[in-house]
Amino acid sequence: MLRGVISLLAIALLAFTTVTTLSGNVRPQGMDELHKTGKVVMVTRNSPTTYYDDRDGATGYEYELAKAFAHYLGLELEILVADNLEGVMAALESGQAQFAAAGLSKEQTADYPLHYSPIYMTVSEYIVMRRGGERPTSLNDLAQSSLMVTAHSRHASSLRRWQRDELPSLSWQESTDLEASDLMQMVSDGDLDFTMVNSNEFQMMQTYLPNLEVAFTLGDLQNVAWSFPQNSDDGLAQEAFNFFYQAETGAVLAELSERFYGHLGQFDYVGAQRFLRHSQRALPRYLAHFQKAADDNNFDWRLLAAMGYQESHWNPKARSYTGVRGIMMLTQNTASELGIENRLDPLQSIEGGGRYLAKLRSRIDDEVQEPDRTWMSLAAYNVGYGHLSDARKLTSQLGKNPNLWIDVKDSLPLLSQRRYYRNTRYGYARGQEPVNYVQNIRRYYDVLVWNDEQYATIGEGSDALQLSSLNVTVVPPLL
Asked: Is pLDDT larger for residue 154 or for residue 113?
């Protein structure tokens, strides 16, 4: 789970000690106007950690959390996207947006007149480099290197503070055209030596750009919170405290942490590089098969492809010691049940794997929503539907939610302990394996989605980022 997502107890304590005028039963003044319009406007940034569009529509950690807040208020959430910190603050000051949920820290916005929600995440600032290069240990070592950050960002503010207080010889570049993901791509490609990003942004992007690593951490932890303008009634800010104070929000934070960061885990550089090589060399041979199986069974083809890689590294002749065969590693019984005559035929194997996963998905209770439904289906593909059912029952017995993958994945490993599996219908199972299985597939899937989007952008005529074509400002040393 993402480090820095604070516990419900801490949220409750913060809410109690910071806002003493709250009442859980009375709406603060100023909310009537919002209810007349029926909506609340959030300003955010377009990034992997805040808000973006995928094949299913709008999503992102900040967006999903804000959507839960709007639901709590009984209002419709409307999104306004700004390019940078100045744009976010301008939207609040002008009244275009009622609050900002943009992954911004209180320290970054300290110079603006704002109210804040409770702190719900802490992040560090990382200096990021290309793997294999000479590792700096402090900003002093970056003097002769190219360092670039997003203009008007928290990182630009941090560098200015360090330059003013400790290192007047420091110099760097800033660009209004580039976000954190762009800058990390440029470091990965060798167009920049270093950049500076938030720890959660790096954690997510390292999956796509495995040749990046952290050179060092700069400064102290920063506290992420929503921002509300002080030039308006503080009713909405007080409602945010009520929202974070309720128990349901603790569950939402845990779910979102699992959904967006829970599968990242310990980074495997060698495995990530191997996957990228296979996706370039082997995957194109089977791409059409995965697309057809996905269309036939209502899956994203990239999910089935990620699953096929986890099963066999896209090797049509793969075989395990238990006798499962082919790209999707079907058992003989499953193949017979599906009418698959040749498990070593890539088309038949991929088609069979897609149909079998869809069959498992259809057996899971309707109460289980996506994406949990897919993660549980994958777990059942790996460990068997019976063991998944045992784990869900065990989850319920332990007082957790059997319809949430975040809870079920904690119960699955218990099936290898006698005190738990002796009371289940299907008995012992190597329960950690399906947890790892799902986590790996989710990582591979994310990389395939990222690669697919990059190729689509290039296909639309977008060239690779070139420094000469960007709006770049050099911040000179003070000496």
From this structure: 113
Q: Is the dihedral of CA 45, 50, 53, 54 positive or negative?
A: positive
Contacts of 102 (CB under 8 A, 6+ apart): 43, 44, 45, 50, 62, 82, 88, 227
| Alpha-carbon gap, residue 224 to 107, rounded angstroms | 8
Torsion of CA 21, 26, 32, 38, to 10 degrees: 110
The catalytic site residues sit at 311
Query: Nearest 5°: phi and psi at 362?
Result: -70, -20
Pairing between strand 194-198 and 99-100?
unpaired
> What are the phi and psi torsion angles at 466 (to 5°)?
-125, 130
pLDDT tens digits, one per residue of 392-431 = 999 999 999 999 999 999 999 999 998 898 899 999 898 9
User: In the 3-class helix/strand/coil scheme, how is the chain assigned residue by residue?
Assistant: CCCCCCCHHHHHHHHHHHCCCCCCCCCCCCHHHHHHHCEEEEEEECECCCEEEECCEEECHHHHHHHHHHHHHCCEEEEEEECCHHHHHHHHHHCCCCEECCCCECCCCCCCCEEECCCCEEEEEEEEEECCCCCCCCHHHHCCCCEEEECCCHHHHHHHHHHHHCCCCCCEEEECCCCHHHHHHHHHHCCCCEEEEEHHHHHHHCCCCCCEEEEEEEEEEEEECCEEECCCCCHHHHHHHHHHHCHHHHHHHHHHHHHHHCCCCCCCHHHHHHHHHHHHHCHHHHHHHHHHHHHHHCCCHHHHHHHHHHHHCCCCCCECCCCCECCCCECHHHHHHHCCCCCCCHHHHHHHHHHHHHHHHHHCCCCCCCCHHHHHHHHHHHHCHHHHHHHHHHHHHCCCCCCCHHHHHHHHHHHHCHHHHCCCCCCCCCCHHHHHHHHHHHHHHHHHHHHHHHHHHHHCCCCCCCHHHCCEEEECCCC
Structure tokens at 201: 């942004």
Least confident span in 44-48, 117-121, 196-200, 393-397? 44-48
Average pLDDT over residues 155-163: 88
Query: What does the alpha-carbon distance between residue 7 and residue 257 come to, in Å, rounded to a whole number?
Result: 12
- How many CB atoms are closer than 10 A to CB 270? 8
List the structure tokens of 198.
């938030």
Round to whole Å and give the CA distance between 103 and 129: 22
Q: Could you read off the pLDDT of 175-207 as tens digits, one per residue? A: 988 888 889 989 998 999 999 999 988 988 887
